[in-house]
Write a structure and sequence with these properties.
Strand content: 15-25%
Largest sheet: 2 strands, antiparallel
Number of strands: 4
Radius of gyration: 15 Å
Distance between the termini: 11 Å
Strand order of the largest sheet: 1-4
């Protein structure tokens, strides 16, 4: 999942400020446990934003929707970043970015 933190915007025109990671996927604390892979898909020529793809386990997603296991604890902020020194990103209550 190394490319999951690739930039998703700023790819179309010169002067846009370069690539930025602004597009996100939000999953609740149960569904995030069903994530198998996350990729940023290059859509150069179609959009100035690259697409974010999240692959989920069908079995784990079904279990998550039925709440058959314990959720992850809610997080009000992400504590890691691909860029050292970057500000933390606050997520909506009860949601975990994938």
């Amino acid at each position: 999942m190394a490319d999951a933190l690739d930039s998703t915007a700023g790819h179309a025109a010169e002067g846009q400020g370069g690539g930025r990671r602004i597009d996100r996927i939000y999953l609740d604390p149960w569904m995030v446990q069903a994530v198998l892979a996350v990729r940023v898909l290059d859509t150069t020529g179609l959009s100035d934003h690259h697409a974010v793809e999240v692959v989920l386990s069908r079995r784990k997603l079904a279990e998550a929707l039925r709440r058959e296991f314990t959720s992850l604890p809610p997080s009000s902020a992400l504590t890691h970043s691909a860029n050292a020194g970057a500000p933390s990103i606050t997520s909506p209550e009860g949601m975990t970015p994938a």
